[in-house]
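lol ok so funny story. i was supposed to be doing the assay writeup but got distracted and ended up predicting the structure for this chain instead. priorities right. anyway since i did it might as well share w the group, maybe its usefull for someone
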Amino acid sequence: MRLLLGQSKLGLETDQLVAVRDAKGVRVTCLSGALWVTQERSTADVILEAGQCTVIDSPGLTLVMALRPSTLRVTEPRVAGLWNALLNWFRPVVGGPTVAF
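and the output, tada:
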């Protein structure tokens, strides 16, 4: 299953886990509670308390676990959203037939 989040709030109970794949550039903000964030290919885990955030900086798997009942916000980067919109707009031209004179 793939979820397109844009910007979403999620509530997690203690020890509940969210697994995110290929989310480089996504911001995770702890709104309440406490979260543990670990990223594939990273040696440093992050603990977030209410009001703190981190940006996922590597591709691959990222795990976010609630250390106590927590609410988090996941925000996709706006630049990537704009870039994807532009690519989709130009796709028919870019992917269309090539004409040479």
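The chain is about 15% helix and 45% strand. Residues 93-101 have pLDDT under 50 and may be disordered.
back to the writeup now i swear
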